[in-house]
């Protein structure tokens, strides 16, 4: 199930955090009073990335961020503004959730997996 499908902004690609879509928070239930949740997402090569969704409650709206090893992921995949990141989630039979992360780049109007090019 797709959790997030986001085209990266310049700050997503250069800072050590990604502005996480608030509409995707449903995939990361947080108990009352908790402002973050950590999870592991695997890429196509089964490399695991330790990520963290944090919510900052300043101002009128909560502002979610994706942190953790996000900066390392961006660096290894050589992501840049305009690339697309897709995060999916599966509910396993044992009740656990598993997450997958992938990156794509648009070339001549078509999206290509960055992971498969590496």
Instruction: Provide the residue-averaged pLDDT.
Output: 91
Which CATH C-level class is it?
Answer: Mainly Beta
Estimate the strand proportion.
35-45%
Provide the domain count.
1
Q: What is the string of SSEs from the N terminus onward?
A: EHEEEEHEEE
Count of DSSP helices?
A: 2
Main sheet characteristics: 8 strands, mixed
Which regions contain 5 or more consecutive residues with pLDDT less than 50?
none
- What characteristic shape results from the CA principal axes? globular
CATH superfamily heading: DNA-binding pseudobarrel domain
From the coordinates shown, what is the CATH architecture? Beta Barrel
Distance between the termini: 25 Å
* CA-atom Rg in angstroms: 14 Å
Q: Briefly note the CATH topology name.
A: At1g16640 B3 domain
Look at the helices and sheets and give the structural class.
mainly beta
Subcellular location: Nucleus
GO molecular function: DNA binding
Main location: nucleus
InterPro entries: B3_DNA-bd, DNA-bd_pseudobarrel_sf
